[in-house]
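Appendix B: complex inputs.
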Amino acid sequence: MTELKNDRFLRALQRQPVDVTPVWMMRQAGRYLPEYRATRQRAGDFLSLCKNTPLACEVTLQPLERYPLDAAILFSDILTVPDAMGLGLYFAEGEGPRFRRPVQDAAAVEALEVVNSKQDLSYVMDAVSLIRRELNGRVPLIGFSGSPWTLATYMVEGGSSKDFRRVKTMAYDQPGLMHLLLEKLALSVTDYLNSQIEAGAQVVQIFDTWGGALSAAGYLEFSLAYMKKIIDGLHSEYDGRPVPVIVFTKQGGQWLEAIADSGCSTVGLDWTTDIGQARARVGDRVALQGNMDPTMLYASPQRIRQEVGAILESFGSGPGHIFNLGHGITPEVDPEHAGVFIEAVHELSPPYHAAQ
Amino acid sequence: MTELKNDRFLRALQRQPVDVTPVWMMRQAGRYLPEYRATRQRAGDFLSLCKNTPLACEVTLQPLERYPLDAAILFSDILTVPDAMGLGLYFAEGEGPRFRRPVQDAAAVEALEVVNSKQDLSYVMDAVSLIRRELNGRVPLIGFSGSPWTLATYMVEGGSSKDFRRVKTMAYDQPGLMHLLLEKLALSVTDYLNSQIEAGAQVVQIFDTWGGALSAAGYLEFSLAYMKKIIDGLHSEYDGRPVPVIVFTKQGGQWLEAIADSGCSTVGLDWTTDIGQARARVGDRVALQGNMDPTMLYASPQRIRQEVGAILESFGSGPGHIFNLGHGITPEVDPEHAGVFIEAVHELSPPYHAAQ
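Resulting structure:
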């Protein structure tokens, strides 16, 4: 493989010294970019874009052409795994993801088969390989998946949900059935992420978007336990390098200590957690990724710079910080503001890395 | 005033010994009750029901006829204060609350006048007085308001919001303007709650539904600071009795220590916080209210009882716990399941109050 020209991100994930704090943005290949909207129009709908190898590669690289980002992330959707299980993913206009065949009873759970990603999700692996090749060592490539619990919410509810009534009722009343579903998902996600690593992903992130909707006990039992299983089953090294794992539980700020003990290298923080307090709580066990409020990108360039400075100051000196937003960048953001954010991280962070 | 026949709730709010853990439910007068739906139909829309004194009293008392609840809560809406400020509150079918005249610039903020509740919100005070009279000392009556920040989100956005883009941009780019708005709201809410206390409310709760959407620093600056101001301005005693204040910030579990220092008597917890860990963090400073996942009410009676037992066990022995849901009861809950929940609290809690 080509030598990596910018390894700040990989170094920070392992809490090694860097020159400046590395930065990337969740959903950095997305609708706020006019060039993304143009490519998406060529592809047709969102899912067709995910499944079109050259176009998925194209949109992955677009933000890197504009900004000095320190990482690329595979363009895909978190629901590719249940789609490969046969649930029939589609995107209804303005309604978010839906499944034609939701999983709502024992028969449906029992009928599910663990995915064989190289076979059932070959379009993802093709995209990973192509992106890695096209990146040509500029920055590392992140692969990703949804967490088992997050996937289960969509699979049982049949789509997005406000109160997660169906999936929680299954967890509360039929915990054995829920564990069977989560077990099948954990095996599938392990295979999926390992396949991405083999195809060229140098880092993987598990997106636990809805773990924060659970109670503290429910989170440990239904979400974190399965992310741990996945981490245990992943290649810890590949191609002679460690493969860092980032766990991001939105609204998981109350459970950082437990997440830091999951075996991940890095904990992703949403914007509601003070990153300095988070660092004090998890100590040297893990690196931290985050965590500016994505809505801050609607504020003035001056205010964005000020907030970047405040977050750098709160984290403090030394290694182990990857700058990011606390959640995905939203479609109405001015691309120039995203640029201000990224440049501010690089401009304002060197003092925190001096004399390491 | 009539003597109180059941003072468990008032005692628990002040961390005094009780025989059993008191319990009530946020939104206990609500759509899950067929008798509520019938009264609402007579009233017309939701806002007409809030403004109809005898019918607001009727729905307030309905859950007490069904269940051995330890408190009543005024039936009203959190947005009555901005409505009285002239913003034109209405409820679009299936869309939640909307304002005809949102507050989106300096001129609009400057034009707002602090409400005189006895005059501008006399229908609320009439309802409080009537409910208190009709309760005839059965249980204490809770008055309430939205927090300044929560009210501001609806006022600036013009209704509900997913990302709070407008209100946060105002807070980030024009903090002085946002503080002026919050100051006017804090003065208005102080007057509103004091008027409710004078009309007969024995406890007040501040609902900070959207404080949890802020960053940690933003929460302290834009939400908690104004709830503190309100608490400082409230009658600490009325009619010879202390008036306990409950602060409930949804998704505020990371900031419990700060909330406990606000001057409130009790901190409301949503279901994502372990109540035993919360107690360890806040110590004896405050009582705790909560915190079963409202979605648990869709589970079986046996599972509901088990969860009530687990929360009682987590809180442990001694005074200072008011049982509640972690958020409002939802419309599709079977009323029998709500009854199972309430009875389980009373049946399972005596061992935790023995030998106090």
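Chain B is about 50% helix and 10% strand.
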